[in-house]
């Protein structure tokens, strides 16, 4: 799904990180204290900013290597627990995009 080495802990202090996996989008963002970061998950196809808040879920973690490990585990758990949601979002993605044109 996601490789922890692609998201250096120190890098989150400077820039958010986003990606997707089979219909589940994710967004990592450091808080103002630079000691904690949030991970949001939401369905394809829209960006974090364009997705309604009610479709997002989030968890917070300490900005440490252990926190990053916990965040990656949380992503895997959420993907597996909501596979139908993510696969449906992935399947509908092209229909949604084509309908907007």
TrEMBL record:
This is GNAT family acetyltransferase. It comes from the Bacteria.
């Amino acid at each position: 799904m996601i490789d922890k080495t692609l998201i250096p802990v120190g890098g989150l202090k400077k820039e958010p990180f986003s990606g997707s996996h089979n219909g589940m989008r994710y967004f990592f963002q450091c808080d103002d204290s630079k000691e904690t970061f949030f991970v949001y998950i939401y369905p394809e196809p829209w960006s974090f900013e364009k997705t309604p808040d009610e479709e997002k879920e989030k968890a917070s973690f300490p900005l440490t290597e252990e926190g990053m490990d916990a965040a990656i585990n949380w992503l895997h758990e959420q993907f597996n627990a909501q596979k139908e949601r993510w696969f449906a979002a992935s399947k509908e993605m092209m229909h949604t995009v084509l309908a907007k044109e």
